[in-house]
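Researcher: Go.
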Amino acid sequence: MNEKAELLERFRRGPELVASLTTGAAGAELDWSPGEGKWTVRQIMCHLSDSEVVGTMRLRQIISEEKPLIQWYDEKLWAEKTDYHRRKPSVALETFRRLRAENYDLLKELPDDAWSRIGVHSKTGEKTLYDFLRILAEHAEGHAKQLRDVRIAYKAFRQQQLEAKGPNL
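Model: Structure:
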């Protein structure tokens, strides 16, 4: 498998990696934060969904337009203004899955010359379509690791709570 094919496969698998790491998360665990300013499972899931919405537009702009301006967005503001604390993680995951699958279907059929097409990010400058594919693949993988770490920390927190209560006789 060549490098592009491997990256496309990592990109395609992102939602399933996230789904496997969130299986069974419910109740208080969804909204538990490991620390000040740290995102919860719910917030991470909503962010992944919104990021895929943004990524969908960016990919299509680069494929279709000549050196389009790729606008930066404030993820913290989106989290606050679009009520991440109330949104359903299951719906966010389904949106992430659906959009990622559509993006994968689009990307896997592109001719080789499409991968060098350029978009100009408003903060980081010129990026190729291939660069954006790598960024999106790594984005899901990075948040999957974050989800795993939050869930591990939550389980340790709950264990400490149980131990502090002492044995129930």
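Model: The two ends are 59 Å apart (CA to CA).
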